[in-house]
Amino acid sequence: LKASIEHWPVPVTAPDDATRTLPRSLAEIYDAYFDFVWRNARRLGVPEASADDVAQDVFVIVQRRMFTYDGRSSLQAWIFGILIRVVREQRRSYRRKHSRDEPLEPELDRGACVAPGPTPVEQLEREQRVRLVDQLLNQLDEDKRTLLILSELEEWTLREIAEFYGSNINTIFSRLRAAKRDFERAYERSQAAKEGLP
Amino acid sequence: VSRAPHEPPARATGAEALLRSVRSDHAPSSADRERVRRALTRRLEDAPRDAASAASTRSVRAWLSGAGKVGIGVAVVAVGLHSLLQPGAAPAVRLPSDQPPPLVASQQPMAADTHALHVAPESTDSAPSQDSASGRRSARAKSANRPARTPGVEVAPARAESARAPRALPADAERSATAPDRSRAAAAHGDGSQARSSAAAPGSPRVGDGNDRGAAAPVSPGVSDSAGARIRAAAPVSPGVGDGISDNAQARASAEAAVSPDVHDSVGARVSAAARTARPQGAADGRAELVLLQRIRSALEAREPEHVLRLCSEHAQRWPRGTFTQERIALQVIASCQLRRPQADRSARSFFVSYPQSPMTARVRDACALQLKAAIEGR
Q1: B-chain residues within 8 Å CB-CB of A35?
Q2: Is the peptide bond before B157 cis (omega within 30 degrees of 0)?
Q3: pLDDT, tens digit (0-9, with 9 covering 90-100), for A20-45
Q4: Cβ neighbours around B14 below 10 Å, total
């Protein structure tokens, strides 16, 4: 079973300098980018029960479409583009099956996605933080959410984000500022609600 | 490389601190990694196998279709040779130039030409041109009683079956007229479905003679659209002669051929004329139904549920399969719930089952909330 994934040839039509550093098998890509795909799928709102399917879909598409990768953007950005489309499709099919008001993920099993902390108190605090961030990100639209994930959580540079979107840095900067502003407002609202303020 | 514009630490807000604190979270466990890896490997291994089996199925199918075409060609050649070598025997498929049917050729030459390639001539000449339905029935019954001396039935058994069909008229015809495809077509055009079904019965496509097309349309009283008439008109010239119309779409597709300029003789002209005259009547009928529905709505808004129920029963009598049946049933259920009728909850539930996607579902649920809750608690 393992052999089939490791002996997979990458049919790349990219320039030589780009292909030189590329992984030569799907297994290499999987090892290098599985964590990235998984955590960002979860940050983009994919329920844990569907994260397996989303990750599989992403790597199947990577295997099929690798020959279209031209090396102009980083491989990570290329995979993230695939991930966004897969998540979008997954969300669309979820909305078809469920009510629009229903959240994408039920408020269950949140603790399972959190790395265990040293003490139960720390673990609880971390769970609460993760839950709060997910709630706040849920209030943003997809574009702002993606920008915040790339910039603040994945720590991509502005240039990398601009390359990913095919846009210039100034535009990305202003969009990112708007996203941060919306996130802060959502955070302030949540704090006010927690303190019982109107 | 310019980094993302982080705020200086002194101005870092709580929101940014929160975001930074969860950077390392959402990481998958090693169990996640291995599970997805195994599943992905299985999926990638299955994919070529599926593709190979699909390719082999395609090749077998292509081979079979090729063999089938060759077989049909051989059969056609054999039949042709057989008819040539035996000059005494009547040909199974007769071209229009080859002994045209005497009765129909004089009255409906174009229709006979249209049918000649598909229909055995015995069926075409079996129905004389008469306007009354009873006349057609007796003529068809007569033709049905003599299938044994029909030369074409050896190579066209379906035609023999279709010739036997009129024996069961009128009861069987009524049943065939209410077949699902036909009743759907009738129900789509508002009222008069019963009348049109019975009128369409003589024009059942299983019979397949030219006169039915013209005769069926003028006697249909409530045709609101020409589609119903066109379906009946299409039946005799549909390629699947003998097995009737199995599909509405097929009927509609061949309907275009039926009203093509080639068939612009009495049959096509009568059908389209009947449809033209029937359309305004159907439109007026649709308006009347809408007016009644608006009255029902205003009665409900005026909190007169008794009146709503009366108007709904009037609607049900006049338009049992009307355009706004779903709305009428919803308003009826709401009024029943407002009146606290004993069976209101069952009506509501059956409405949800019958029309699960209805836009009225929320209104019915709100109006019948008490009854539904009581029914659940009682159970």
Answers
A1: 27-28, 33
A2: no
A3: 566 667 888 898 899 999 999 988 98
A4: 11
| pTM listed for this prediction | 0.40
What's the full length of chain B, in residues?
379
Cα angle at A70 between A65 and A75, to 5 degrees? 75
Is the confidence metric ipTM above 0.90 for this complex?
no
Q: Which residues of B touch A (CB under 8 A)?
A: 1-5, 13-16, 18-28, 32-33, 35-45, 47
Record: contact B24-A115, CB cut-off 8 A: yes
HEC readout, chain B: CCCCCCCCHHHCCHHHHHHHHCCCCCCCCHHHHHHHHHHHHHHHHHHHHHHHHHHHHHHHHHHHHHHHHHHHHHHHHHHHHHHHHCCCCCCCCCCCCCCCCHHHHHHCHHHHHHHHCCCCHHHHHCCCCCCCHHHHHHHHHHHHCCCCCCHHHCCCHHHHHHHHHHHHCCHHHHHHHCCHHHHHHHHCCCCCHHHHHHHHHHHCCCCCCHHHHHHHCCCCCCCCCHHHHHHHHHHHHCCCCCCCCCCHHHHHHHHHHHCCHHHCCHHHHHHHHHHHHHHHHHHHHHHHHHHHHHHHHHHHHCCCHHHHHHHHHHHHHHCCCCCCHHHHHHHHHHHHHHCCCCCHHHHHHHHHHHCCCCCCHHHHHHHCHHHHHHHHHHC
Measured between beta carbons, the chain A residues lying within 8 angstroms of B31 are: none
d(CA A136, CA A130): 10
Band (A147; pLDDT cuts 50, 70, 90): very high
